[in-house]
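User: Predict the structure for this protein chain, please.
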Amino acid sequence: MAHRRSSIKKIRADKRRREVNRRTISELRTVARQVASLIVAKKKDEASRASGELFSKLDKAVKKGIFHKNTVSRRKSRVQLKINSLKISS
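Assistant: Here is the predicted structure, written as structure tokens:
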């Protein structure tokens, strides 16, 4: 157990930050799964619309410091490549 006041405060802050980060990552995974299922179903229009929401959430995660910008760039690129490889269908 921490003894110093600053250490105790740091533990509390870390716990709050961890909860926020976990919630954000969970939301990202949910949206990513939805986009992936649309890609598997070959629904290009719907997947591209859903990817916009995913990209927005990823960018916000970078802004909050949850992910590094290059990590998010790589993920966005991979999703977009998969969407672009689909033939147009509804």
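The chain is about 80% helix and 0% strand.
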